[in-house]
Amino acid sequence: MNDSLITDIHLHTLRVPLTEPFVISLGPIETVQNVVVRISTADGRTGWGECSPYMTINGESMDTCVVVGGYFAQLLRGRDSADIAGCIGAMDGVIYANSSIKSAFDMALYDLAAQRAEQPLYAYLGGHRNKVLATDMTVSIGSPEKMAADAARFWKQGFAAIKVKLGKELEADTARIRAIREAIGPDAPLRVDANQGWRDASYALAVLQALAPFNIEHCEEPIPRWQFLDLPALSAQSPIPIMADESCGDAHDAERLIRIKACPMFNIKLGKTGGFYKGLKVAQMGEAAGMELQVGGFMESRLGMTAAAHLALANDAIHHCDFDTPLMFTEDPILGGIGYGEGGVIDVPEVPGLGATVDPAWLEASVTNATARL
User: Fold this and answer.
1) 29, 73, 111, 359: which sits with the fewest CB atoms below 10 Å from its CB?
2) Would you please indicate which residues are annotated as catalytic (active-site) residues?
3) Which residues contact 76 (CB under 8 A, 6 or more apart)?
C-alpha cells in the first residue's frame, strides 16, 4: 500500500472572539470564523491547514468552506497526497474559485509532503533562513484619537512598523494619519491600507497626495479592485508606492497586473492564491518583474500564519510581513507554530513540515459544524 495515500479528512470550524472589533473599510470583524482541515495518510501522518474566509473579499464564508470542503474530502479519498499538483487540479476541476478553502487543503498537503521529506516547510519549498521576518502591527479604523493611542501603544511595544487601516473620506483619513504621526514621531515606519475604500483613482490620488507629507512607506489597494486598469496611471502619479492586494489573487491576476505595469508591489496571501502551489507562482512572477513583495493574511490563527511565514522564507523578493492577526485573538488554540519576539520578529519552527497543529483539547471543546471522515 502506498504510504502517502489519503485515508481520512476532517473539517473543523474555528471560532475565536477578538479582543476588540477589528474595523476596515469593508466592515468590522468581532469573531474569527475559520475552517481547519486535517488530512491523514496511510503512514500515520497528519497534515494541517487553515483558511480564514472573507465574504467581502473572496466571496466565501465559514459555512460555504465547510460545504465545499466536503466535496473536496470525497474527491481526495484514496488519492496520493504526494501528488499535490494532481490534487490541486482535481479540486479546480470540481469548482471554480473558492480559493480560501482550497488553500487549507493545499496547506495540509504541503505539510504532509515536508514531513515526509523530513524538512521544515520553508526548506521543502526551496527557501532558506537568510533574512529576518518581522511583522507589522495594524491599527484598525476609528477616531483619530483612538487610532493614535493604539499606534503609540504598538510602537512602545517595539513593533518595527505600524500599518494603518484607512479607506474613508480624505479629510478623515488625513486627520487619522496626522494624529498617528504626532503620537509615534516622524520616522517610525508607517504603512496604510485602504482596502479598496477610495472610490476612484482621481479621489485616491488626492488622498495619497494629502498623505505624502507624513512619510508613508506604501499604500495597499487604494481603489476598488475592478478598477485595476486605472492602477498604472495612479501608480505613476502617486507620491506613495502602491501595493496590489485584493486585485492580485492568483497567478492570472498577477500576470495581468504585471503586463499593464499596474504597481511596483504585490501582497500575497495563501487564502487569495489558493495555497502554496499557486502562491509560489505569484511570488516568482513578482520577483521576475523586479517587484517588492509582501506576505499577509486574513484573520488566520498561528496555524495559518505559520504557513505564511514559511512562504515568506521561500522567496528573496518578499520583504514585508503582515502576520499580526493572532495577536488580536482572545484565545490561542495552536500548539507549536510561529512565535512573536521583540520588534515583531517571527520565529519559524525548525521541525519537519508546517510545525503547527490545533490543540486537541480545544478542538474537543469547540463547536464543530462539520466533520468529514473518509
Assistant:
1) 359
2) 165, 193, 220, 245, 269
3) 6, 9, 39, 87, 90, 91, 105, 374
Domains of the chain: 6-118 (3.30.390.10), 123-357 (3.20.20.120)
* CA max distance for the chain: 66
Cα separation, 37 vs 354, whole angstroms = 13
Residue 190, amino acid? L
The 10s digit of each residue's pLDDT in 197-222 is: 999 999 999 999 999 999 999 999 99
| pTM score over 0.85 | yes
Question: Per DSSP, what are the bridge partners of residue 117?
Answer: none
Burial grade of 234 (CB within 10 A; 0-12, 13-18, 19 or more): buried
pLDDT, tens digit, 9 for 90 and up, residues 112-154: 999 999 999 999 999 999 999 999 999 999 999 999 999 999 9
DSSP 221-251: --S-GGGGGGHHHHHHH-SS-EEESTT--SH
Q: CA neighbours within 13 Å on the CB side: how many for 38?
A: 21
| Short-list 350, 351, 346, 337, CA closest to 49 | 337
Q: How far apart are CA 324 and CA 326, in angstroms?
A: 6
Strand 219-220 to strand 190-193: parallel, antiparallel, or no bridges (unpaired)?
parallel
Strands (E), the chain: 6-24, 27-41, 46-51, 137-139, 162-165, 190-193, 219-220, 242-244, 265-268, 292-295, 318-321, 334-336, 339-340, 346-347, 356-358
Q: Which cell numbers hold the place of 365?
A: 471543546
**What does the angle CA 271 – CA 272 – CA 277 come to, to the nearest 5 degrees?**
80
